[in-house]
UniProtKB/TrEMBL annotation:
Residue ranges of every copy of the RmlD-like substrate binding domain listed in the record: 5-301
Membrane-spanning intervals of the chain: none
Species this protein is from: Podospora appendiculata
Record's protein name: RmlD-like substrate binding domain-containing protein
SUPFAM superfamilies in the record: NAD(P)-binding Rossmann-fold domains
């Protein structure tokens, strides 16, 4: 096959930047889109809510693959802007899926482990396990999944619309606030000296996964699905899941960061109470994702060691 082209939405974001890098390293022609941070040279400025802008980009670059990373992905911010979130996470996703399906473009939609209720005893969750989001973020991502699968199904392109669920992410960041994991480094630094005491969740189980690993899997999924004929592609799984096996509560991650940096975390108090019933955002207890479907496709599901990565990279996150 000749030169391959991929469009990455949300290419200025935490995961999108690494997806761009992964495809570039494999020799693909990569076009990234963004909106508020797009520079109009290396990153195309595209309003995903504007179907004509999206259609123009697809027509001009004729990609074989689109990796859809763009989303409002912070549960608390989602609750603060439900209409804006739905416009991006659901409506824009449906529009993009419809345009890709009409052209036979492979669309990889990045979803989340928060589509599951995460009740004690349910994990690990297989791809066909019953969903049931506990918050609006998970609900909009689940509706985005359904939009992708529905649009490709309606176009008779089953197997060209693929959902990839991932858990909480960590990795190279422009600021620690980009990641619910990286930002814990700021928490540890913030309680030093005269910093105030902080309560930290020590109930919900999380499986932090490196953005470089997710980006590699996105490439490998794209390559695997493009290799399949139209008839074979229809039989490939439409929902995939990727996750590290490393398991921590947020408090345990703070303990680790304190140990790595040689800092005292006595002012960080473990909170084992679980969700506050009155909180608007309810988080699941354990949404561990099974990677069985990826493994059965022959895709490498190994991940970087969480502790080892942070020991190597910690200096860059103390800025």
């Amino acid at each position: 096959m000749g030169e391959r082209t991929v469009i990455v939405t949300g290419a200025t974001g935490f995961l999108g930047r690494q997806v761009v890098k992964a495809f570039n390293l494999k020799g693909w022609n990569v076009e990234g889109t963004g909106f508020t941070r797009a520079d109009r040279s290396s990153i195309l400025k595209v309003d995903l809510a504007n179907a004509s802008e999206v259609e123009k980009v697809l027509n001009e670059h004729n990609p074989q693959v689109v990796v859809h990373c763009a989303a409002n992905r912070f549960p608390d911010k989602v609750d603060a802007d439900p209409s804006g979130t739905r416009a991006l996470n659901v409506d824009a996703t449906r529009s993009l899926a419809k345009l890709c399906a009409a052209r036979g473009v492979l669309l990889i939609y990045i979803s989340t482990d928060y589509v599951f209720p995460g009740r004690p005893g349910d994990a690990p969750h297989e791809t066909d396990a019953a969903t049931g989001p506990t918050n609006l973020y998970g609900l909009t991502k689940l509706e985005g999944e359904r939009a992708v699968l529905d649009e490709f199904g309606a176009a008779g392109r089953q197997g060209r619309g693929v959902v990839l669920r991932v858990p909480v992410l960590y990795g190279p960041a422009e600021s620690n606030a980009e990641s619910a994991v990286n930002v814990l480094m700021d928490v540890v630094l913030g309680v030093q000296g005269g910093g105030a005491r902080v309560k930290m969740d020590h109930w919900a189980l999380r499986y932090p996964t490196n953005t470089d690993d997710v980006a590699r899997v996105c490439h490998d999924v794209a390559a695997r699905y493009l290799e399949a004929s139209s008839s074979d592609c229809a039989s490939l799984p439409r929902v995939l899941q990727f996750s590290s096996e490393d398991r921590y509560t947020k408090y345990e991650m703070c303990q680790l960061f304190g140990e790595i940096m040689g800092l005292n975390i006595d002012k960080i108090e473990p909170n084992t109470q679980g969700n506050d019933p009155g909180a608007s955002v309810q988080r699941p207890f354990d949404c561990k994702l099974s990677t069985r479907a990826l493994r059965e496709l022959g895709i490498d599901v190994s991940t970087q060691d969480f502790v080892g990565w942070w020991r190597r990279e910690v200096r860059a996150f103390r800025k």
